[in-house]
């Protein structure tokens, strides 16, 4: 084992020990008393000044109290206390780690993170539930959201574009639960996803044609399957000349597009006053002269407005939905429409769905954490009271000579049925012919 690895392991062992927690707690109390003496002056200090102050005070406290730690351990305590006073405590390193996708806190003793789709437990520890609450309230402070007995559940967008969900007692029986979803500062493009193996070049070409041909597309998948990332990537194919309106419960989309209007729903107050739903925003967006409407997640009564918009000239619209397959996606649309009070017959609803949606792209997370497009299905119409579809691509991993599974997609070589795609191909062929003439 190299000295660097051994050194890192020693650090992790100390950080996860009860000795570290005890010494940090004692030193923290000493620092708080010193900060009280400083008063308002402390609030004006920079992060660098706070770091210097903490290091000096920790050194003084350790020597005075004869705490049995070495210089390296003393520096680790000083760093942790600086994060406690000027940052987000034990969460700071995880929040700054670009490989971390999700941070999940189950009470003060259990912290899990997701990296590359795989959950693993972290050595990060909090002193007690009050410690976690203090850090969470610091995260919520800039966005003006309260967390207390009157408001025991918070779901909010963070200033950096991430999302936080917190639920405390009495709703969380075994102690508070915190879920933080992080998003990349530089969203993945289609070329990046091809390199990562999410889909192959032929599928990328089909998806580009579908978006440019103004086909209506739903991205279907489970939780943390990569739906939002794929939707972001597909949106890069939208021409810069078009006006895009995005509608979300919690704004997560980060479209690299010149003309985007971002709308976000608003939860009601304690008595429900002030509620602005996705459905309200979708209705309003129709008056905003959108070329395309993108719904972050379809999961309620807004499904009726979305289908009507897609059926009445807002071609090229997109959205995500929770479903396990393209067929289940259609069933879920029907179910949501029923919950929304749809008054027509089943046959009429299925015709609306068939006329509105052109493609369903199914994405999933494999056991190893990889995100892959599992299916691309085209809706071809409504026959015999059933929404008809044809599968253009299907994920079928193959086992290589070395026994390792390799990504592969099966296709029957069927051309898309949509007249929108046909028109685009014809126009591209005409343009190519004119250039060569």
UniProtKB/TrEMBL annotation:
Residues of the Bacterial type II secretion system protein E domain: 85-361
Transmembrane domains' residue ranges: none
Molecular-function annotations in GO: ATP hydrolysis activity
InterPro entries attached to this UniProt entry: P-loop_NTPase, T2SS/T4SS_dom, T4SS_GSP_E_ATPase
Domain of life: Bacteria
CDD domains per UniProt: VirB11-like_ATPase (cd01130)
Family: Belongs to the GSP E family.
Protein name, entry field: CpaF family protein
């Amino acid at each position: 084992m190299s000295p660097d690895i051994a050194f890192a392991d020693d650090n992790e062992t100390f950080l996860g020990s009860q000795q570290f927690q005890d010494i940090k707690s004692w030193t923290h109390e000493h620092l708080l008393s010193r900060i009280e003496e400083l008063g308002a002056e402390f609030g004006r200090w920079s992060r660098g000044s706070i770091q210097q102050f903490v290091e000096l005070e920790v050194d003084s406290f350790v020597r005075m109290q004869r705490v049995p730690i070495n210089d390296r351990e003393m520096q680790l305590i000083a760093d942790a206390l600086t994060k406690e006073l000027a940052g987000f405590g034990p969460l700071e390193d995880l929040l700054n780690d670009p490989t971390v996708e999700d941070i999940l806190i189950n009470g003060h003793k259990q912290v899990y993170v997701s990296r590359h789709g795989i959950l693993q437990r972290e050595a990060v520890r909090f002193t007690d539930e009050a410690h976690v609450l203090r850090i969470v309230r610091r995260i919520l402070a800039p966005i003006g959201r309260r967390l207390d007995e009157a408001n025991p559940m918070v779901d909010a967008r963070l200033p950096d574009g991430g999302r936080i969900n917190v639920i405390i007692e009495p709703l969380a029986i075994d102690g508070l639960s915190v879920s933080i979803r992080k998003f990349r500062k530089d969203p993945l493009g289609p070329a990046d996803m091809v390199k990562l193996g999410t889909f192959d070049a032929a599928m990328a070409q089909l998806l580009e044609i579908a978006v440019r041909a103004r086909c209506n597309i739903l991205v279907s998948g489970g939780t943390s399957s990569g739906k939002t990332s794929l939707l972001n990537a597909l949106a890069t194919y939208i021409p810069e000349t078009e006006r895009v309106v995005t509608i979300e419960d919690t704004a997560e989309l980060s479209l690299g597009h010149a003309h985007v209007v971002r709308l976000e729903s608003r939860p009601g107050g304690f008595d429900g006053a002030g509620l602005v739903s996705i459905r309200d925003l979708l209705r309003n967006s129709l008056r905003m002269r959108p070329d395309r409407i993108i719904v972050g997640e379809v999961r309620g009564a807004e499904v009726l407005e979305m289908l009507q918009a897609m059926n009445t000239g807002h071609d090229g619209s997109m959205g995500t939905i929770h479903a396990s397959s393209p067929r289940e996606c259609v069933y879920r649309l029907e179910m949501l429409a029923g919950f929304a009070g749809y008054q027509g017959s089943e046959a009429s609803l299925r015709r609306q769905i068939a006329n509105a949606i052109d493609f369903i792209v199914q994405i999933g997370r494999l056991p190893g954490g990889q995100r892959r497009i599992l299916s691309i299905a085209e809706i071809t119409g409504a026959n015999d009271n059933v929404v008809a579809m044809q599968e253009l691509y299907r994920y079928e991993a193959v086992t290589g000579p070395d026994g390792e599974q390799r990504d592969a997609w099966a296709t029957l070589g069927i051309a898309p049925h949509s007249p929108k795609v046909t028109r685009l191909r014809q126009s591209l062929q005409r343009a190519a012919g004119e250039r060569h003439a």
